[in-house]
Structure formats: C-alpha cells, structure tokens
Amino acid sequence: MTEEKLPAELLKEIYANGIDGTTGDYSLPPMSSAALAGIIKGESAAENLNELQFKKNRPVDSPVSEAVQDPTDLSQAGWAVVFPAAMDEKRRAAIKEALKPLLDHRRAKAGDLYRVFEGETGYQPPESKADFCKRQSPEIKRGPARPEQMPFYVLLVGSPEEIPYEFQFQLDVMRGVGRLDFANDLEAYARYAQNVVAAESGAVKLPRKAAFFSVRNSGDDATLISDRYLARPLLANLQQPKLQGEIPLKFAWDLNLAPSGEKAELARLLSGKEQTPALLFTASHGMVFSSMEQQFREQGALLCQRWSRGAPLLRDDYFAAEDLGNANLMGLVAMFFACFGLGTPRSDYFTHPRAAVRTPIAPRNFTSALPNRMLRQGALAVIGHVDRAWGHSFISPGDNVEIEAFVTALRKLLNGDPIGLATDPSFNLKYADMTTTLSEVLQELQYNPGYLGDEELVRLWTANNDTRSYAVLGDPAVHIPFVQKGAAAKRPATPAVLPKAVADRLVVLQAGIGPAPDVAYVVKGKVMPVDDIKVEAQHLHAVDHDFAIQINDITQSLKAFGDKIAKAVSEATEKIMTLEVRTYTAENLSAITSSNTGNAELRALTHVDFDGDMRVYVPATGAEVDTELWEIHREMVREAQANRAQFLGAMAKLASDLLGMIKIKP
Amino acid sequence: MTLIQDARFTFSGFAVSEEPDPFGVWEAPALRATSHGEEGLMWRVELPDADSALDAVHARADVLRRGADDLAQAEAELNAMLAGVAPAADAEHGLTGAVSYAFSVPAAEDFHPQKEALRRTLAGLAAVEPSPLTGAVAFSAVETFADDQERKGFQEAYRRWQAFVEQVQQMTAQYARVETVIAGAPVGLTRVGWAGDFETFWIPGMPALSRETHRETVNLALASRIALLRVVSVITTGAAGLILKAVALPPGGQVLLIPAARRFILDVMAVLRESRR
Amino acid sequence: MPGDNVSTGNTKDLKASVQKFASDLAANVENFVTDISELEVRTYTIAEGKFAAVLDDPKKKNDKVITGEGVQLRAYTRIAFDSDTIVCLPVNDSGQIDGAVWDMHQAAVNQALQNRATMLRTIGDAAASALDALKKSR
C-alpha cells in the first residue's frame, strides 16, 4: 500500500513523471537520493548563471524595467516575433501572411514597441540569448527587459530544431516567451491568429470556471505525490481569494477538482462543450515512447487513472492528440504537469554530467502533439514541461508544500494577466533562485562535503531542473478571455471558420511552400510475439546448421561471461569490503611472480574499507621516516582507490547492460 | 637485456582476439614469455629512456581518452540510428495495425558505410516473413542473407565477438601484473587483484621520475581494462536496442544482433581513430 | 536441434548469474551508503623486524584490524557525518608529538576524505546500475 506514506519515505526514491509506452513502466527508474546526489555534485554551472543571479538579487519581482508601469499594456511592454534566420523567405512570407491578423493586432497594441526579427535579424543557431541580443543591439544587456531595446513579450515562430529550447529558456528568464510550431500548416497559423484576435476583441467571453484534473494511479508514488502535494493544495490555495502573502484574486472563480482522474473525465473537460473550463490544470504522468512515429504522435500524452503500476498499458489509458476529435477549445488556457507535456528535447537533459555525449532520446527536438492540436482547435496557450517533470520539486522533508510558483502563476492568470507575465515572477524567478542557490551549494560542497545533506541537495536540483523547463506554446501576450462583471458569457458554439478569401489565399500560398516535411515510415509486416514463433517443418531442411550453432555459441559465451563475473564477485564478496595496498622494496624484480614475493621487503600497508575507513601500518624504525617511500605509497593508495571505484561502477553498468540485453521481450 | 628504440605497450598472457584493443593503446604480440619467465596476465610498458618515458605514457593515455570519446560517439551514432527504427508494437499493448520495421531514409550526407552494413544486417534479419497459412516464421539462413559472402561475413563477425568476450573476461577476472621497463631495466612491478588490491615492488633508489612513470603505467593499464568493460557494455546495450526494434527474428536470433552491433561500434571507432592520423 | 528456441534455457542461467552479481553489488553498495556516518583513520606502527611477520601472518589474514606483539596504534581520527571530529595524537617516549607519524597520519586522513567523496559519486553510479539491473531482471 502506498497510500499514507510520509514525505520522508517518499523522498528515499526520486521519481520522474513519465511512463514508457513500450514497457508500461517508469521511463526513468526511481533512484535513491544518495545516487542522485552523487550525480548532481558532478554537475557544472548553468550557462546563464550571471543573468540568473541578477534576477535573483533584484529587490522587486517584476521582470520589466521600472519605467514600465503596466506590463500588461503592450504599448509599454512591447511585443516581438522572432523567426529563424535560416527560414526560407517564401515560407516566412507565407506564415506571416497567415498570421497577419495577429501581427496587425499586436502592432496596433504595441505601437513603436512592435518588432519583427527575421532574415538577418532572425535567430541564428546555435547562438545564446546573449549573443542574439548583442547582435540586435550592443546596448541590450542582461537585466530587466527594456522594451524599447527588446520587447518584453516575444513570440518564437518555428520548431525547437530551428529555434532551440535552450534559447527559449534563456530568453524567458527576463521576458515572457511563447512559441508557435505549426510547421508549414498555414491554416493552423491563420486559425490561431484569428482565434486570438477574436478572444481579445470580445467575441469570446468564457464563464469563470477553472478545472483541476489530477490523476492518482494505483501503486504509483509519483502521482500520489502530484495529487497530494501539488494539485489539491494548489486548488485549496486558490479557493481562498484573499490569502495572506498571496496575490488576491480580483474575480470570483468557480474552481473545481474533477471527480476522478479517468480518461472519460478529461475527455469531457476537453470536449469543447459546457464542461470545458476557461483554465485547465492537469497533473499526471506523461507518456514516453521510443518509436519516432509514436513520439511525434503521442509523446507527452496524459496518462489517466485506469493504469496502475504493474499492469499492461493500453491505448485507452492515455489521452493523446487524436482523442480531441473536433472539440472547440476556443479561449482555453491550459497548464500540464506531466513529463514531455509540452515537448521533447533531442538529448536527455538528465544525462550523467561526465558522459561525453548526452543520451539521445528523440531524433530531433519537437513540441508535443497534444498541446499543438489544442492550439489548432481554439486554445490560446498551453503551459507545459519540456523533458521530464519531477514530482519532488514541491515537497520537503519537513512536509512543507512549496508550490508557490504554481500558485503565483495561476493567481495571475485568473486575474487576467498575460501568460508571459504570469509565469515570470513565478517559474522564472524560482528558476533563477534555484539555479544560483544550487550553484552556490555545489561550490560549497567541494570544500565542505557535509554542507548540505543528500536529500536537500536532490530536492534543490530537481526543483531547479523542473522550473527551468516550463515553457509556453502560444502567444505569450494572450490572457484568459473570461467574462468580467456584468457581461454575458459566450463561447462560440462551433469552431470559427476562416473567411473564404483568406482560405482561398492560403491554398495558393500552401501550394507555393509545400506541406511540412513529415516522418516517412513503412508498414511492413504483422506483429509476432516472440514466444509464438515456430519453425515450419518444411523449412527445417534449409536450415544452415552452422548458423544455428552460432546462435547457441554466442549465447553460451555471454553466459560464460556472466558466470565468470558473477562467480568472481560472489566468491570474493569479503575481498570487496577491504582494499589492501602494499608497498615493497626489492633489489631484483625478476624474482617476483604471481604468487611469490621473493626477497622483497614489505615497507608499508594500508587497508581501506568499503565505507572509507582506513588503517595505515608503518614500521617503527626509530630513525627518520622514509618520506619518499611514504609519498609513493600514498600515491599508490590513491591510485588503488580510484581504480576500485571505477571498476565497481563499470562492473555494475555491465551487469545492467547484460541484463538489458537478455531481456528479450520488449 | 634487449634495448628498444620505440615505446612499446603490450599485454599478454591470455587468449587475445584479432582486435584486442579497439582503443589502439595496447598491442598483443603472440604469446611470449614475460621478463619473469612465466606466463601470466601481464601489461608491460617498455620505454627507451628515462627522459622521455613519462611523456610516452602520457601520450598513450591521451590515445585512450580520445578512444573513449570515439566510443561515446559510436554509441551516440548507434542510438541515433536506432531512433530512426520503429519497433514492433507489442501485442500486449493492444495496439492495432502493424508497424514492424522502418528506416528513415538517409539523406546523402548521412551515408555512412558502417550504418549501411548494420542496416543490411537488420534488413536481412527482418526479411523473415511469417507464413500466410500458419503464421509461423520460417527459420532459414538461405532467406536471411543476401548471398553467401554476406553470410560468411556474419559468421566471421560472431566468431570475433566470442573471442572478444573471452578476452575481456580473462582480463577482468584475473590477477593482473603491470610492469614498467625503462632502457631495458625493470623499474616497478605492481600486482593488482581483480577487486583492485595493489602490491607494488620498487627498486630502492630509483629516480622519482621512474617511479612516477610506473604509477602512470599502472593507471593506464587499469583504465584500459575498465574501458574494455565499457566497450562490452556499449555493444550489449546497442544490441539490446536493436533487439527491441526487431520483429520476427528466428528463434534465438536476437543474439545475432550482437556481432552486428560490435562490428558497428568498432568500425566507427576505427574510422574516427584513422581520421586523426 | 535447429529451430529449437535454444536461447531460452541459456538465458535463464545467464540471467541468474548476472542477477546474483547485481544483487551482491547492490547489497555492498547499500551497506556503503548506509554506513558512511563515520570515517575512521588509524595509523599503527609495528616494531622493527616484526613488520612483515605480523602483516603476513596467515592467522591474521582475515582480521579487519591487525593486532599482535609490536603492533601499536599511534594515531586515530574519527570524523562524524556532521563533521564532529575526534583526534588522538601520536606522542613519543618523551611525551612530545611524533611529527613524522603525525604527518603520515594527516596525509592518510586527507586521502580518506577525498576517497569518500569520490566513492560517493561513483558508488552512486554503481548503485543506479545495479538497481537497474535488478529491476530489468524481474
């Protein structure tokens, strides 16, 4: 039973919120605090540490310069769109034309503070945020956004291959950043633009309803944590409009927890009918796949309540893009707490820092299909996680819930703030705070290993990892178009259609740029579970006997290898507990064999236990100590210790890989 | 006492495969007697003179470090290839339809002889089709390989894999001795237990530089041993990745992917090493 | 026989072998992780002429701490996890601190501290791999 554990128990193993759709198990196995702490201590500092430190140390929590009195006003805060510099001119022109209603709308609001970065001024990989800004104007420095130099709200148009996630995260520290990634789908851009303008022009006024969808999978600690320590406390906090220390809610909201975490319930919330709220918050596992095609289609899909730990995973257990059907989500703003909920990086952010390369987890950086499709069907923005989301970023060993970033973001959204502003003093500030604190702690640990306990260090690291990777899909200047006092609520009953002239024009433009490059795959044969494979009698005569023997021999050699390793370890388990380092002197090394020390004289001996305890034996000569000999002996002790540690690690890794190798069933 | 002109890094005392050290640090001469007149697992570094000895060892350590980078790159390339291969959908997952094998079509600049060899192996192993009548899969070498040459190539690959595993197993599970010889004279000998216990024998009065050189030799030998374990890890992980993607292999045929993975990894490492010459 | 699923029986043995290894290693690693609350370093001297005899005595082969005639504990340091430290200094016959032994002991203490930090990091890897191996073997 995992129902009523204390946080300290849960913290012993660290969970990331992702379920592998191929295995039906955690995509990243739970790891002990000590193991993770060891890895963290090897990490290097964040690239944009300076800016993060600056942000942390600012006395006020506004990301814009003090000259901007109202950062929700685009005429003061500015708005920009950034295209990849390498984007084909024709394609860019077509996308801009499709986005024209939005661009015109923003230009009207931002006035002189409206900017377009394209062509030579567009984003050039692999430049950092600092490089990009310096290229625009050397006067743009780190620090609060000066809209006259670089607007506060920045929309990136392009995939994370064209404009990397890292750039989005860095830019987001001091700005409100969002992204549109519809590839070449001009109709999607056009619809989105039309929907935003409609929402901000009064055509959409949603009832003030917010829904919280929290999944609790049986036998699964990760969702126990997110349900008990994130979703429910978050809701409880928001249900008190005026709470000391919190941003007061300006409007009365109907805030509800979905009656269950079942898929049918989520489907109702995303049906586009009257159950669809204005703001949706979900907390669940996100699906993880290894197949490229399935990743693009379903990675980050929200795993619902029916799945329980240990049970086989079925398609019906999770809510993916195609489950949206034709739902009209006009005006919806959503926030997902789930692994890969917003997107997947090409390489695993969680790779051992000493690895030569990061582990590839996807053929390219991409945004998840579900939030993308939501935007195509009327949603204005989705906030979610790139890479894994960690369940331990908001509880501490003292059972203190630390969900402040979420609380602040949602309170601001519920007050009508633009998304880019709502997430700034919450997630971005927390990220800045976490990163600088983590950096300071890691430095201190180098000199003072007892400075911070492993569990605290792990908590700090996971929170840092977690808050960095929240990102917005959609225009960062959008806000929830909810009904304010006195007005009547209205959500268009059917999805808005594009004017015929626009639709016709788009057809022409689309023909000019072609469809988006897609993943080509070939369907070849039928699925055959391994155990069902039989040999047809009629083919036996054609079998190459040598070939069959080879299969047997390879397996035997692997077995022998495994046997030898296992035997060596199990026989000498006591030996592994103590490391012995001896130093001899000998006049003649040729007399020394594997089992014989000849006439060599033992001069020094050190025993090191597995837990590091050390015993040093020196001769009591009464004369001067041979310092040179001792220096040599100490060097060899150090060598032996280093080798022991590495060898153990290599053996353990090999065991793990061997077992992975023989795990035949996928 | 035989004087040598160039530095020599050898290991001996066990059965070695044809490619005993994919990192290019150590050679394995034919079984010969050690300086102590007995056979045993021996890592031996012979250096021509004391002045250049330490530099020579450091240079070899650099070769090992670069080799480790090559291994990581080979692993990354294999993983990247695997990412382009869609696995069979597991019937347990209740997925309908069939996705069995897929390769992303490489762009011209992606062409890579090692990838092609691996791709052909995978394609060959996946070419086994279920019988339309019974659904059973025929196991036939005739259908699996394009031609006799390809089959023989595969047999050779598996033989080399076996020899390699045998070698690594001997190197890791035995007591090792590391000896440093400078200008024909042994300067230090270290016996290392498999779990890492050290016994070092010095000749009194040896210059500090010679002692330092022997310590570095020990470091290099043990690092090489660990690196070889890592090669086995990478190959088995790569093969496991291939297995997960494969469908309808002959019974036990999954293990055939190990030689394919090994060939891929070692070829990529060799190409990278060559490119630095 | 060709066509038999020859791998199944063999892989069970292999699995058992590797499982045992991973299990033993995981147990050792877990002991390590839970037993690092204190670090102790001891420096002994052994009377001249008795050094090899005592240390190579086959009867003492499995003793964690080697004792016997001529073996004297000269310096001792214990560092608790909260960094509280106890130090026993070596003094010679005239009651003065034996500088040579003390220098050797201090060097050993520093080395032990560094080693523990390294082991913590690397044992973390080993633990993760061993646990991973065990999970895969289920």
- DSSP summary: helix tally of chain B: 6
Q: What separation lies between the terminal Cα atoms of chain B?
A: 33 Å
What's the overall average pLDDT of chain B, rounded?
68
The arrangement of helices and strands of chain B along the chain is EEHHHHEEEHH
> How many strand segments of chain B?
5
* Low-confidence parts of chain C: 1-11
Tally of domains of chain B:
1
Describe it.
The complex is a heterotrimer of chains A (666), B (277) and C (138). With 666 residues, chain A is of the alpha/beta class. Chain A has two domains: 7-513, no CATH class; 562-662, no CATH class. In chain A, 38% of the residues lie in helices and 14% in strands. In chain A, the strands form six sheets. A six-stranded mixed β-sheet of chain A has the order 9-8-10-14-17-18, with helices on both faces. The model of chain A is unreliable at 1-6, 352-356 and 517-551 (pLDDT under 50). Chain B is of the alpha+beta class and 277 residues long. Chain B has one domain (8-275). Chain B contains six helices and five strands; from the N terminus they run ββααααβββαα. In chain B, strands 1-2-3-4-5 form a five-stranded mixed β-sheet, with helices on one face. In chain B, a hairpin with a 5-residue loop joins β4 and β5. The radius of gyration of chain B is 23 Å and the shape is elongated. The two termini of chain B are 33 Å apart. By secondary structure, chain C is α+β, with helices and mostly antiparallel strands. Chain C has a domain at 6-38 and 74-136. Chains in contact: A-B, A-C, B-C. Chains A and B meet through α12, α19, β19 and α20 of A and α1, α3, α4, β4 and β5 of B.
